[in-house]
Amino acid sequence: xxxxxxxxxxxxxxxxxxxxxxxxxxxxxxxxxxxxxxxxxxxxxxxxxxxxxxxxxxxxxxxxxxxxxxxxxxxxxxxxxxxxxxxxxxxxxxxxxxxxxxxxxxxxxxxxxxxxxxxxxxxxxxxxxxxxxxxxxxxxxxxxxxxxxxxxxxxxxxxxxxxxxxxxxxxxxxxxxxxxxxxxxxxxxxxxxxxxxxxxxxxxxxxxxxxxxxxxxxxxxxxxxxxxxxxxxxxxxxxxxxxxxxxxxxxxxxxxxxxxxxxxxxxxxxxxxxxxxxxxxxxxxxxxxxxxxxxxxxxxxxxxxxxxxxxxxxxxxxxxxxxxxxxxxxxxxxxxxxxxxxxxxxxxxxxxxxxxxxxxxx
Length: 362
Known about the structure:
One of its GO terms (biological process) is regulation of protein kinase A signaling. About 45% of the residues lie in helices and about 20% in strands. With about 350 residues, the chain is an alpha+beta fold. A hairpin with a 2-residue loop joins strand 7 and strand 8. Helix 6 (about 140-160) runs antiparallel to helix 7 (about 190-205). The chain is globular.
């Protein structure tokens, strides 16, 4: 067999080199694609992956494909970055036994550290979050209301005439920053998860950005330490001229603060309604969130809405009527100011009539 001369390349070696390049390219592409959906992925994915030597075959890809790929990556990142939930579906806690028990828990923690009173959730806003979403204007809010109304028959189908009862027992935290009362295990978990999934699907089908990347874990929040960052700081307390003590900041919720409530039973909540609430608008006088609309679960009296729902619907109808009246007034005002409209023609006609009268007098 003849050996290739200087400058010549064996065909088998060419195939091997080409194959290695293809494998390298496929590996890089799969690595980039897998990181595209990772939150807070940096712009230069290749550098973060340690990919410094770009195979020559990548340079032969068309500029058009590269631009499409970069555009898709940036759109995904922008969508994730701009997604800041400001509305949520709430299951309000109305059982006084539960609210009273959570209040006792909060007081027990405050007795151990009075500073934590600022981190406590008001008893009027106790709830279980079913779904979070982003609604940026009135049109999207109305779409969200329609989606909530469409959710009701799905809930009825899931429950099949049964009540959804949520028992609360025990205490835990998310990252030692959010304290919550746990939802006990039982047959109620599956229907609640099905309702949450149905809500997410309906809202997303209507073009609403809804849901979270993490798995849904229903809970009742009673404390938010991350909402009080000034408690984190360590400072010096002067007791006398020569005596200073160090006061450490509170950076996490110590499990010892709630150890007496680890297995405590707080009570059961019979789910009666689901509200579409705002995270940012002013809360109601009772401490509960601003509510755009509600659906009643397990209707009584043939499905008639309760008094609170009637008040909300009436208020919304009045607001819509006022808004339409204002818009109509503005349109009419703008039309009157336009040259050549009916009002100006009437003015010109009146001027001509006045001139004719003066001529007749002469």
